[in-house]
Amino acid sequence: MRTAAYPCLVMAAAFLVSCEKFKYEIEMAVQGEMLARQLCVSRSVTDKEGDKPETVPDEVVGRLAKLYEKHKPNEDGTRHTFRGRFKGRTPDDVGGAGFFTNLKTSMGSTVMYIERFRGSDDLLKQVNTRSQAVDKAMDLMIGWLETELGKTSDFDKLRKFLDKDLRYDLKNLSLYLWVLHSDASREVNAGKEENTTKAQAEIAARAIQYLLERDYVKAQDVPLVYRVQQTEASAQVKALVALLGRIIAAKAGAATPATLEKISSLAADGDAAGASLVKYLSQTDEYKQRVKQWEQRPNSDPNEAKPAPMSMLSDYATQAVGIELMATEDDLQIKLACPSNPLQTNGKYDELAKVLSWSRQIQQASQHPRMPVLCYAVWAKPDEDSQKKHFGRTVLRGEELLEYCLWHDSLDAKEAAKWDRFVASLAPGPKLEEKLDAFKLVEPPPVPPEKVELEAPPEDYSEVAKRLIIQGLSSGAATTQPAPKPAPQ
Asked: What average pLDDT score do residues 360-365 get?
């Protein structure tokens, strides 16, 4: 599959096109300390007639069945439903890792959910992979050019440009394209699927602009880049060498006429230059090692073709760019039962259905992982009956209840028991705030009368919770009145 939208990228990367697509539908609900989770998996394959349902592979079904308690397939095996309950951590079903917790107190509870789907968050590894790929590709190209141009008087100057400026710019461009592609992917996953083509075209435009500004190509060279893209694989070496010759000639700087003539001849006779490049690559130790590994391949893969010398450069180019603009992605739909509007989330909340949802595109297995898809939510549910019983009204909700739950969960067992006994003893009345103010988690040691206290005692840790409650009591209507008695039945 080819497209004129990405001409400058095709020089550096092989695009992966897949017609197989999975759809993952997840529904969840918090049940105490457990998370009830249902996963429905389906698969489709795209051909000339469109999307067609296909059976889910046995290895996928078998792996998921080990993670869930219950499994139910439909009649033709194109859709499988799995159900289970999990504590603390979500299963690695779609690919990734997730965590949730339910902080329960007598004042209410707070639920925190966060889950990563596929991708890689090892950014340093990805940066190093791209940088090393550029280095290996440049080492091969410099070695080959030395066999062609090394006898010219000013090759050292040309080598300096190749070894420093070009190597640096290629690394910079590699990271630039990676960041731009990550931004485009986030745009799509933010619900702006209609901007996919526009975002991908902008990646190509920015890459062209980068090359134009640094005089690697001229505006009139863009059609030549397009020709490289449209050329069949068997003749692409010739087209690439011609383009490379144009770039080197443009950046040769103080090269002598003899060197420029050599470069021009190299670019003009693409067949001879391509053959020379293939010959050089085939004699490198790295290629010989690849052939040796191919010869020692497992018997289970007897039809694997012998690696071509040019495959080294194409592999490094793909690693350096590390994006797959045309790759098929799987669909991910998530629904999470949520009793109140979440305090923090990157999903969409349906107030009527009390459901939080996410709709995302997730990368299929790839050697060039993007930033992971992340879904998260935090919400707090007050125990209104308990709060009204002890304070006459609901004093903690939302962010304040979240902070209270975090505070309460940070107490040790002895502190929590003491605080809970104190809260259970409270009732609405005129001296409620006085009781709150007087409470201490840790009683300070008595101070001898003869000793003058020079410093204020350290603040008791209970001040955090007391401040939140007192703020709730002082806001809105008066709260010191006794709670109304229930109406007679």
From this structure: 86
> Which candidate, 215, 214, 129, 228, places its Cα nearest to that of 171?
129
Which residue matches tokens 């550029």?
Answer: 134
Bridge partners, 349 (sequence order)? 356
Residue given tokens 């004042």 in the structure block: 107
Tens digits of residue pLDDT in 98-129: 999 999 999 999 999 999 999 888 889 888 98
**Listed residue (336, 364, 379) closest to 117, CA to CA:** 364
Say how far apart CA 331 and CA 419 lie, in whole Å: 47
Give the type of residue at 401. Answer: L
Per-residue pLDDT at 301 exceeds 60: yes
Q: What 3-state class would DSSP assign to 70?
A: strand
- The DSSP output letter for 477 is S
Beta pairing partners, 70: 83
Residue 374's pLDDT is 93
Residue 292 class from Cβ within 10 Å (0-12 exposed, 13-18 middle, 19+ buried)?
A: exposed
Per-residue CA distances from 467 to 53, 333, 421, 473 (Å): 58, 41, 18, 10
CA 287 – CA 405 distance, rounded (Å): 61
